[in-house]
Amino acid sequence: MIRGYSLCLCLAAFLAVGAAPVARHVSAALDPSGAEKTEAVAPETLPPLLRGITLTEEQKAKVRDIVQSQLPAAQENLKRMLAIQQEMGRRILSPGSVEENQLESLLEQVLFLQNQLARQNLRTTLEIRSLLTPEQLAEGAKYREKLKDQRKGAEGKKK
User: Fold this and answer.
1) In terms of CB atoms within 10 Å, which end of the chain has fewer, N or C?
2) Could you give the CA distance from residue 42 to residue 55 in angstroms, rounded to a whole number?
């Protein structure tokens, strides 16, 4: 019984976090029409690689094209993953007993889709990175270092 309860807690936590981090970056700088958001885009919504980097108009267009080309496959995988997660949630919350083996195949499907999304994200990130100059990479590194220092300062104030 405790094993089932802990499985339920783990799955509930898994379902809660699910695909949200992936979904946030898939269409980060695009609105539904495909137009690029410029001033309105908060730094935390940009793909991590591009935060703090000034892009040329040509680079912005290429990044938009790269993201748009990857979007349909990512959206389909997210849609499938969310449907499986909903089914897992339905089974977990339905009356009666639930055994781990009843949910394992669904969990395996979710993990497979997460793996596909992670690999796709890596390929997209590397493709975008190839557009950046050494100076832009240094600019991004400097920005991330500044954020790291700010976090350290904020943590020091909490103590």
Assistant:
1) C
2) 15
Candidates 28, 67, 66, 53; CA nearest to 137 is 53
What is the model's pTM? 0.64
Q: Select from 59, 62, 28 the least CA-distant residue to 136.
A: 59
The token duo for 86 is 């909903």
Distance CA 55, CA 76 (A): 29
Smallest CA-to-CA distance from 30 within 39, 20, 19, 41 is with 41
Helix/strand/coil (H/E/C) assignment for every residue in 62-129: HHHHHHHHHHHHHHHHHHHHHHHHHHHHHHHHCCCCCCHHHHHHHHHHHHHHHHHHHHHHHHHHHHHH
Q: How confident is the model at residue 46 (pLDDT cuts 50, 70, 90)?
A: low
Q: If DSSP codes are grouped into helix, strand and coil, which group holds residue 30?
A: strand
Q: What is the pLDDT of residues 60-107, one digit of tens each?
A: 999 999 989 989 999 999 999 999 999 999 999 999 888 898 899 999
